Amino acid sequence: MVHSSPSPSKQHLIPGYRPVLEALLSSRIRILEIWIREGKEGTRVKDVISAAAEKSIPVSYKSGREMDHLLQGVAHQGVAALAGEYLYASIEEIVAGSMSRQGEALILAADHITDEGNLGALVRTGTFFGADGLVLPKDRSASISAGIIKRSSGALVNLPVARVVNLGRTLTTLKEKGFWIIGTAGESRDSIYDFDWKRNLVLVMGSEGKGLSPLIRGICDQIVRIPGSGRVESLNVSVAAGAVLSEIQRQRR
């Protein structure tokens, strides 16, 4: 089978040692070429070159001026990868992977989170706490980009991400498969510390400004809140997810 190269509009640059190594290790990020600044040496550079060689990915050496021009305003550390589109997992793959933890399957869903920084941090938080996968809606949502790969700091190697046309329909399907759909909202009377998290579940995190949409709220089996001091109205989505996921892990262990 002959694979055609991605069109230029579908290519992107991944800067920095760790994001580049993550991309090289991931089966879902197609690396076309590695760029290294001329004269750049050290163990980390050798690790990148070795990982690229294992996958027969060409390495090009560029001047510092050329690297700075191609990655204007980006802290690239003298290393970058030219990549094609991210290859999303299917929701079926994520469910199948979660079934090894029957009764403790944990899938994250993002209800139209548009900020790349927040989504990248959510990917990292979900991976840290052992989520089985992340579900994103196709429209009105950030997608997996070079920026998110960088912000996730290596987490995407271990967290499959699915992108679906209709998040509500997907959550309904997961509910039919035995998953509890749990949302978070500050006005709920039910604390995350009182809920029994020992079950297969999907934790849905709302968008930055609007929280959970009315449609998704209606699908949720339970809405829970994170108790706080009341001095701050809300938390960043990745911080909120971390608080809930920490309690899930505490109960399950």
List the helices and strands and how they pair.
Blueprint: E1 12-15, H1 17-25, E2 29-37, H2 43-54, E3 59-62, H3 64-70, E4 79-86, H4 91-98, E5 106-110, H5 116-128, E6 133-137, H6 146-151, E7 161-164, H7 167-176, E8 180-184, E9 201-205, H8 214-219, E10 222-224, H9 237-252
Parallel strand pairs: 2-3, 5-6, 5-9, 6-7, 8-9, 8-10
Antiparallel strand pairs: 1-4, 2-4
Helix pairs in contact: 1-2, 5-9
Describe this structure in words.
Residues 1-9 have low confidence and may be disordered. The protein is elongated, with a radius of gyration of 20 Å. It has 253 residues and is α/β, with parallel strands linked by helices. Helix 1 packs parallel to helix 2. The chain has 2 domains: 8-86, 60s Ribosomal Protein L30, Chain: A, CATH 3.30.1330; 91-252, SPOUT methyltransferase, trefoil knot domain (Alpha/beta knot). It contains 9 helices and 10 strands. Strands 7-6-5-9-8-10 form a 6-stranded parallel β-sheet, sandwiched between helices. It has a 4-stranded mixed β-sheet with strand order 1-4-2-3.
